[in-house]
Write a structure and sequence with these properties.
- Helix content is 78%, strand content 0%.
- The chain is an all-alpha fold.
- The chain has one domain: Sodium/glucose cotransporter (Up-down Bundle).
């Protein structure tokens, strides 16, 4: 019965997504909803993109193991990222009327930097989308009592998201996000209230968390702990900024006011609401202490689903899985669309010049399909990797490779193409070196890469210029389908 209701809910969201797809007439509609989204939809779609499997399953698992200190990366770093985007990046990028974040790299630093940063951004999405697909596989497996294997569940989950993202692009994503966020917020709030009641009141849950020192946020005052804390904090805080899904939300806004305020409100809402799953998992320690302790040792990601399935009535189970699927689908649809649009606009077009907008729209849809298949295969291959680790690992590559050139390009007039190339090369090589050697155990690889990326842009920009500053040969004007082809 539960599985039937969940499938019915999936079919409804697919129908809504396909209805929204009727608005897609060109690539600007597909990629950034034709820049028509109001502030409320920018808030819901930024919040929805962030609130995924790691927030419902990954963050609570980390929280019961290491308290707030264990989740500095997400939600604190991730939510702060959206706030920083709204305050320092949205207005500048929105006024440039670009289709992708990689278009910016081309306009500022030329083709080479555009292609390299596009590849870095596309690569980073594998881990993030895989985390959502993995959780979808887990949901289908749980709901079917093991009849649907996790890999088959991953395939079914991917197909359900693909059904509307393929046709409606950003319009379908934004409209379904809006509905799914209402279900998510109401659903998880009801589950938290019910769990608090079962645990003997919210006060008891907070008291338990306090007694276990789960509210401890700051690290121990030692060099190692402080460095690890900073590295974890900046991974998503800065590494998520040069991401196409964030950029798409900014560029989809109907005006600069919605583009700047939307991510700030979305980021604050995300940090605050991420406490709800943490509250639910702590209440599980009171409601089913022995079972919860056993699951924390075996797979802490299963604590909340087990609490709902074993201890709560059928209505609460329907609400929980509706909320969980809303979180997964909203994040996965956004993160399937972003790399596909980047690939077509910034890599494919290097080799196959733009013939017509209709042809490019068709190519974007094919790219979404191919990327979905790759992600599903990657998720199946990585089965068993914790969801939180999948997500945090995804952002390290953009932190060390794409963030510094973006900031330098926007805020430092003396930044050059050579500086951007030095930054990317030094950042990524240092990161790989630390990841592959024992040096990474002494000092976090992503922090070492980030520091060297800053060094690279300064040395490369101020030193003798061997690389010519070459700017992009075309400027894509959003909303004018054939402009500057």
């Amino acid at each position: 019965m539960l599985l039937t209701l969940v499938i019915f809910y999936l079919l409804i969201t697919i129908a809504i997504g396909l209805w929204a797809a009727k608005r897609v007439k060109n690539t600007a509609d597909f990629a950034i909803a034709g820049r028509h989204l109001p502030l409320v939809m920018i808030v819901t779609t930024t919040f929805a993109t962030w609130f995924g499997s790691e927030t419902v399953l990954g963050i609570p698992a980390k929280f019961v193991e290491g308290g707030l200190n264990g989740v500095v990366e997400d939600p604190f770093g991730a939510g702060t990222c959206l706030i920083l985007v709204g305050l320092f990046f949205a207005a500048k990028l929105y006024k440039m009327t670009l289709l992708t974040i990689s278009d910016y790299y081309r306009e500022r630093f030329g083709r080479t930097v555009e292609v390299v940063c596009s590849l870095i951004i596309i690569l980073s999405y594998l881990g993030w989308v895989s985390a959502q697909v993995t959780a979808l596989g887990l949901v289908f497996n749980l709901l079917s009592g093991g009849a649907i294997s996790i890999p088959l569940g991953m395939v079914l989950g991917t197909a359900s998201i693909l059904a509307y993202t393929l046709f409606g692009g950003m319009w379908s994503v934004a409209v379904t996000d809006f509905i799914q966020m209402i279900i998510l917020v109401v659903g998880l709030t009801l589950i938290a209230m019910f769990a608090a009641d079962m645990a003997g009141g919210a006060g008891k849950v907070i008291e338990l968390a306090s007694s276990k020192e789960l509210f401890k946020f700051l690290p121990e005052p030692s060099f190692d702990q402080i460095v690890l804390f900073i590295a974890a904090g900046i991974t998503m805080m800065f590494g998520s900024i040069p991401q196409q899904d964030v950029f798409q939300r900014v560029m989809s806004a109907k005006d600069v006011n919605a583009a700047t305020k939307g991510p700030v409100i979305g980021g604050i809402s995300y940090i605050l609401f991420a406490f709800v799953p943490m509250f639910i998992v702590t209440s599980a320690l009171i409601i089913m202490p022995e079972q919860a302790e056993a699951l924390i040792k075996e797979d802490p990601q299963k604590v909340i689903p087990t609490l709902v399935m074993d201890k709560m009535p059928f209505v609460m189970q329907v609400i929980f899985f509706g909320a969980l699927l809303s979180a997964l689908k909203s994040t996965a649809s956004a993160t399937l669309l972003a790399p596909s649009v980047t690939f077509v606009e910034n890599i494919w077009r290097q080799f196959f010049p733009r013939i017509s907008d209709k042809r490019e729209l068709w190519t974007m849809r094919v790219a979404v399909l191919v990327f979905s298949i790759c992600v599903c295969a990657y998720a199946i291959a990585l089965q068993g990797t914790p969801i939180y680790d999948m997500v945090s690992g995804a952002y390290q590559v953009t932190l060390v490779g794409a963030f510094v050139p973006l900031v330098a390009g926007l805020y430092w007039k003396r930044a050059t193409t050579q500086g951007a190339i030095f930054s990317i090369v030094l950042g990524i090589l240092t990161w790989i070196l630390f990841m592959a050697t024992p040096a990474g155990e002494a000092f976090p690889a992503q922090l070492a890469g980030f520091v060297m990326a800053i060094v690279g842009v300064v040395i490369g920009s101020l030193g003798p210029q061997a690389v010519k500053n070459s700017h992009g040969s075309h400027h894509r004007v959003v909303g004018v389908p054939n402009a500057g082809a």
